[in-house]
Amino acid sequence: MDVLYFAWVRERIGLPKERIETEAATVADLVAELSAREDRYAAAFADLSALRVALDQELSDFDASLSGVREVAFFPPMTGG
């Protein structure tokens, strides 16, 4: 699965994207797995209320299933007008 990071999430992790193999069942499981890798991931995912997630380019929740998902994107909430 491809995992994409945007804005300050990318800055903290140091990568725009990566391809990973995971057994995670939900987005929250994936976040826990990534956070356990290194401090930079733990820092990026420390406050989930400051993050949004999209699965295959559809806005989703952290309790969503990863079954069949090809792409996960993490990004801060967006504002604009």
Outline the structure in words.
The protein contains 3 helices and 5 strands, in the order βαβααβββ. It has helices at 8-13, 27-35, 39-44, and strands spanning 2-5, 17-19, 52-55, 58-60, 71-75. The longest helix is centred in the middle third of the chain and has 9 residues, at 27-35. It has 81 residues and is of the alpha+beta class. A 5-stranded mixed β-sheet has the order 2-1-5-3-4. It starts with a strand and ends in a 6-residue tail after the last strand. It has one domain: Ubiquitin-like (UB roll), CATH 3.10.20. Helix content is 26%, strand content 23%.
Radius of gyration: 12 Å
Largest sheet: 5 strands, mixed
- As a percent range, the share of strand residues is 15-25%
By CATH, the architecture is named Roll
Q: What is the terminal-to-terminal distance?
A: 33 Å
Oligomer: single chain
Mean of pLDDT: 95
Unreliable stretches? none
Class inferred from helices and paired strands: alpha+beta
Shape: globular
* Domain module tally: 1
CATH C-level class is: Alpha Beta
Keywords:
single chain; 81 residues; alpha+beta
